[in-house]
Each structure stands twice: as structure tokens, then as C-alpha cells.
Amino acid sequence: MILYHGTNFPFDTIDLSKCRPNKDFGKGFYLTSIESQAIDMAQRRCNFDEAGSPIIQRYEWDENNDNLQVLIFEGISVEWAEFIVKNRDRKNTERHEYDLIIGPIADDGVVYQINRYLQNIITINDLVRELKYKKLNNQYCFCSEKAISHLKRL
């Protein structure tokens, strides 16, 4: 399978220590199977950092995950929402033990709904119901060196 990573500065080696914490699935190297989504992310990175230019890196993923701890969210669910809320919580120091996580990406609209949940404006079930109508794309979060070893840069 071909996966894409959008960035604003070129690099040759994936360095997990440079990955940001408190993202949807925690600290890790994020990719997508949708090239246009990677292009959008690269442009957002340029705008956010006010530096660089959009770069799309392509990887071939060896889907043989027999030796990896993998978590897959097939769609939006209470478990998915709670997992994202926990990972995005800057006060949470507990980290998961997964090598690879696959599931829907939480965009700005999702973050807005998560914030409503955290402020006790809506319940977790309300959050899931609100998110069911959003068009969400999948993301692949490679959280360990073992998982990254399944990627080949093209």
C-alpha cells in the first residue's frame, strides 16, 4: 500500500523524537492513503510554521503487521473519541503501547466538538453523534521504530 506524508521541510530519516505529542493517536509519524490530504497537511504545516514549502513524501507500507501491536478504529465510536480526547489532553502523561494505530482523522470541526465535550457542554454520546455526519479520512500513526521498519521511502 502507498501512504503519503505532508511536510514543509525535507528529511531522509524518520525521527520519532521530533514528532509532536498530543495528536489524535499520540506521538508518532502520521501518514494517509489519500495524496490530496497529505498535500493539504503540507500546506497547513507551511502556514503554521510560516516557513518551508509543501513537500509530499511517499512510502510503501508492508502491511504484514504480525509482530506489531495494532489498534484499528473502523469508524467513529465512543472508544475512538475517548482515545483522541485522552491523547490530545496535555495533562495526560499516560501513553499507549501501540506500534501502529489506524482510524479516522479528527479535523478542526472534530477538535471543536471535542472541546465542547471537555467543557461538559455535550456528553460523549453527543460527541459521537455529532461526529458521525462528518466526512473523515483515515490516518496511519506509526508510533514505534518497529512500526516504522515496515515503511519504505519511495
Description:
The strands form two sheets. This protein has a four-stranded mixed β-sheet with strand order 2-6-5-4. The chain has one domain. Helix content is 32%, strand content 21%. The mean pLDDT is 88. With 154 residues, the chain is of the alpha+beta class. Helix 2 links the parallel strand 4 and strand 5.
Structure, briefly:
This protein is α+β, with helices and mostly antiparallel strands and 154 residues long. It has helices spanning 35-49, 78-88, 108-118, 124-131, 145-148; strands spanning 2-7, 29-31, 55-61, 70-72, 100-104, 138-142, 151-153. Helix 2 links the parallel strand 4 and strand 5 (100-104).
Indicate the percent of residues in helices: 25-40%
Euclidean distance between termini CA atoms: 12 Å
Q: What's the number of extended β-strand segments?
A: 7
- Specify the biggest β-sheet: 4 strands, mixed
Total tally of structural domains: 1
Shape by Cα distribution: globular
Task: List the main descriptive attributes of the protein structure presented here.
4-stranded mixed β-sheet; alpha+beta; 21% strand; 154 residues; globular; 3-stranded antiparallel β-sheet; 5 helices
Helix/strand layout:
Blueprint: E1 2-7, E2 29-31, H1 35-49, E3 55-61, E4 70-72, H2 78-88, E5 100-104, H3 108-118, H4 124-131, E6 138-142, H5 145-148, E7 151-153
Parallel strand pairs: 4-5
Antiparallel strand pairs: 1-3, 2-6, 3-7, 5-6
